[in-house]
Amino acid sequence: MESGDRKSYGLGPPDDTDDDFDVHASDQNSIGDDYSHVEMPVGDVDYTALSIAGMDLTVNGKFEEAMQLFKQHETQSPLMAGGVAFVHYFTALISFEEQKTANAKAQVVKCLKLCKLFLKMSQKQSMQSKQPDHLVDSSDRWAAVCSAYTCRIVIADCYAYFAVLTSCNMDMHGYIKAGWYLRKSYKLYESVYKELKAKTDSDMTPEVRSRLLSATSFGYGTFHLTFSMIPPNLLSFLEMFGFPANRNDGLEALEFCLHNSETEMRAPFALLGLLWYYLFVKPFITISDADIEKCMLYAESLLSEYAGKYERESVFFSLIRARLLRMTGKLNDSIALCEHVMARADLKMVELALMMRNEAAWCHLACLDYKQAGDQFQTIHGQSRWSKLYYLYPVALCAGAQGDTKRCKHLVSQMRKAKARQGSQVELFVQTHARLLAELGCKREVCELLVLELLYHWDVLYVCPEGTLARAHALFATFDGHKDLDALTCFLQGVVYGSCREELDQAEVCLLASRHPKSNSKHLKLLPPYSCIELAWLVAKRGGGDSGVREATAYLTEARDKYKNFDFEHRVQVIVHNVLESFKEGNET
């Protein structure tokens, strides 16, 4: 094999692995640029099996045990070095702690340096292939090639990890650096993915090719799926810089990784990624009830087929089950599951408990149990590092809905003084509504109505029990003709009539009224575009073939093009883009 042919054997050029991570010099020098710290895998140690065991421990929340297992073999295998980096990265991402983020960055740099050394050793070993075939042990040659591909995939992982950790700084410099690392990561994934796709059985055994392709499919698929969720106006900008956005390619790649779970350590996180998409993302970006039903059925099939491999009480899979229970209207069962997991003595990370607490809080709020919901959201606000401002809003609404106007006003004052994070649509929504509450005096009925609006935007209103819907109708009568809240009242009436009561004609009357309201608060500019989306949903609900598609398209186009500078504008753009694309594919009406 000529030196110029290295890349076809997985031995990428030096550019693939240049590291320019912006970290402290002491971190950069954590491993020297020689071979004294690493060695090629030897003996009968099955690093593939060990890496899978380590990732299984991680997905079960046993981070310390996973770290110990990966650390034992960190300098013997790129898989194990990658495992150490992933556990550091994953725990930092969950906790959002500055020290854990700094430690994770240092470990990612260390992993990248190790993999560069592994790659150099693989290149050195593969040089034997210049000799005649009868002088070369083919098993050694292909072991080196396999190791080289593994190194390149883990290096791509490192770029992706570092990009996400860098973006946690939430400043423009961090975002620019993160974008650069993401591009390097994707280009390396893409390069390896295309090379492996082009391999034949004469180049590489099917088993080895499938295992390596599964490994790179996780990163390749995650990029495609994630970027496909970006608002269209930003997506065209990203595509100019070589970022992908094919949702189907992303889903297919993650499914391929998952179906090779016996040989690929990233498979459990491919499973979590797919479940996250079908239960946490897709329901927000579709107007088809049938589509949501398919999502739930597919998620149930994935859980029944694969989740049994992992501990029943894994926090991550428990969260998925709790969400599935909530989506099917089994709110009490969802709450019970969340409380059971939160009570576990071995749940060492506060952030894992907060995930379950958040799910339980929304179920309590759907039942209008303001005391329980408020207490849960208050705990999350006190302990979470993600968004202090966001969680103040439901706490304030719950206080006001219980008649504690004084506390509600105090919390609203805090929200108005806080600074929303740049680009955070949720926090901008909270501050807009804090101004609305301040103007309307935090009255009990106002807070109750805004709770219903909050339930709508978090996709919970449609599973509310009968008692909640009865209270909603009483509130609608209270605010009929209200100068600031009549449009919101009409909108919520339309949603309840359409989604919960199946009274489509009455729903249409209400939604048309909120689309062109006679009066509306300046803080509720989001109502007309959302009314258009709900009207498109009504059309999809009724069917109507091509004429129905044209009518729904007109409403969606109006939501996208007519209204600007309102809360959740990016979310509306994503919904409209997704639904219009599905119309082209013939999947919605």
Quick summary of this structure?
This protein is mainly alpha-helical. The chain has helices at residues 25-28, 47-59, 63-72, 78-95, 98-126, 138-167, 172-198, 206-227, 232-240, 247-259, 267-281, 289-306, 315-327, 331-342, 350-366, 370-383, 388-401, 405-417, 425-440, 444-457, 466-478, 486-500, 504-515, 527-542, 545-561, 569-585.
How far apart the termini lie comes to: 56 Å
Tally of helical runs: 26
Instruction: Provide the low-confidence segments as ranges.
Output: 1-9, 13-18, 24-35
User: Mean of residue pLDDT?
Assistant: 86
**Spatial extent as radius of gyration:** 26 Å
How would a crystallographer describe the biggest sheet?
none
Class by helix and strand content? mainly alpha
In percent, how much strand structure appears in the residues? Answer: under 5%
Q: How would you describe what is shown here?
A:
With 589 residues, this protein is mainly alpha-helical. The chain has helices spanning 25-28, 47-59, 63-72, 78-95, 98-126, 138-167, 172-198, 206-227, 232-240, 247-259, 267-281, 289-306, 315-327, 331-342, 350-366, 370-383, 388-401, 405-417, 425-440, 444-457, 466-478, 486-500, 504-515, 527-542, 545-561, 569-585. α3 runs antiparallel to α4, α4 runs parallel beside α6 and α15 packs antiparallel against α16. It is globular.
